[in-house]
Amino acid sequence: xxxxxxxxxxxxxxxxxxxxxxxxDQMLRRLEERQHLMDAAVxxxxxxxxxxxxxxxxxxxxxxxxxxxxxxxxxxxxxxKMGKASFFHIQDSAGKIQVYMKKDDVGEAxxxxxxxLDIGDIVGVNGYAFRTKTGEISIHAEALTLLxxxxxxxxxxxxxxxxxEKVIFDAFSDKELRYRQRYVDLIVNPExxxxxxxxxxxxxxxxxxxxxxxxxxxxxxxxxxIYGGAAARPFTTHHNALDMQLYLRIAxxxxxxxxxxxxxxxxxxxxxxxxNEGIDRFHNPEFTQVELYVAYKDYNWMMRMxxxxxxxxxxxVNKSDTTSFLGNEISxxxxxxxxxxIDAIAEYTGKDIRGKxxxxxxxxxxxxxxxxxxxxxxxxxxDEIFGEFVEPKLIQPTFITDYPTEMSPLxxxxxxxxxxxxxxxxxxxxxxxxxxxxxxxxxxxxxxRLESQAKLRQRGDEEAMVVDEDFLxxxxxxxxxxxxxxxxxxxxxxxxxxxDSIRDVIFFPHLKPE
Length: 514
What we know:
Blueprint: H1 25-39, H2 55-60, E1 69-80, E2 85-91, E3 96-102, H3 103-106, H4 108-115, E4 122-131, E5 137-148, E6 158-162, E7 165-169, H5 175-180, H6 182-188, H7 192-212, E8 216-217, E9 223-224, E10 236-239, E11 244-248, H8 253-261, E12 266-274, E13 286-295, H9 299-318, E14 322-325, E15 328-331, E16 337-340, H10 341-349, H11 358-367, H12 378-389, E17 398-404, E18 420-428, E19 431-438, H13 443-458, H14 469-476, E20 482-488, H15 489-497
Parallel strand pairs: 3-5, 8-12, 16-17
Antiparallel strand pairs: 1-2, 1-4, 2-3, 4-5, 6-7, 9-11, 10-11, 12-13, 13-20, 14-15, 17-18, 18-19, 19-20
Helix pairs in contact: 7-9, 11-12, 13-14
């Protein structure tokens, strides 16, 4: 069987070479094969090919003696060239299937073309399904069409028997290289596709759930003159025609609430948001979330809705309401535990933060061994304590509720607890999945909250919110009681598919320059 290794990047010169700094011997040979094909009037890159079957459908529906005509297309993954008959496997979007080809069946010209093909080339095959003497369902080729000549060898793992066991060498397994060259990762590790197929199914399930409730899917601006709706640093850009600075949105919230003011009872948006922050296993500066706002509801109603939404989604995608994440078996069957943030900190640290001043909170954090930025305020101190000592321990789904007012400037004051707002975060597997409020709709209090945030910015808190006068004007016209929700799609996909890095659920994650 012909096998090929990853390019070794040795320098070489070649007429008509691709625009890269170096070519290795295998690439030079492929360029020569490309030229030979063209000299023989074979187009290495034709426009189309009529596919009638996918590989898995042929295998699953095979009937002996049927000789069902098929036309398949895919990438050559193994190849065994012999005299007048050869075997090769092609991989399409569904799987792999073997092809058997005889010179007498396809003709001399097509067989000569085949001799110039390599692992990685894309071909179309017309023929019929049959079973080989070894029992493998295959395609007996009657015609071969070259569809794409691959110039760069793909890394093919080698198998070798060591002490009676198969050992794989040269697998394309380096994580960072797989993320940088996702196209190669998908070719040589086709199981990766399943994560992204599930991702699409998760979004589709959620979108369908929202639509069934009668809520409207909308789009709001990504480029915003004033960013808001979250505590985060933005990316900035410049609009040349208007000569003004704009920001990539950090959240959809303030525009969606404008639509609630405008008279919609329920609106949602699946969209990209951008936060100019660090990159790690659980954070990507460009991420996907869905935000939902429903009039006349509160955060208690939203908790029940989230339970139903996530449970339905995991059942549809996994056919089970359990998942394995970071080595933990997690049940997503409602009801989820509910615990206030003050009680959660008391339970996991033994410290009562209720009614503590900023100085007292700072002293408590020091006692717990936390080193804090002197510029952060009470809310951030509580958030640091929770993130360090509580959140990682919340493995089974838990609603953390009732946050101090300073931590949630867009949330409504609690109906019965002064100094507390009606807010929850859902923590699963030690990670935040969603955030929700009973939305603040008193424009006087909202202005006071945003102006307090502006003072925190003056203290040096770069993530504090800014005053958005147009948003304040909107709610001055009157916004009905409203419940809002933001769900991190990337995090939810990680949990449902059992991936331990956000980079495994994003096709093209951001990485440091090579």
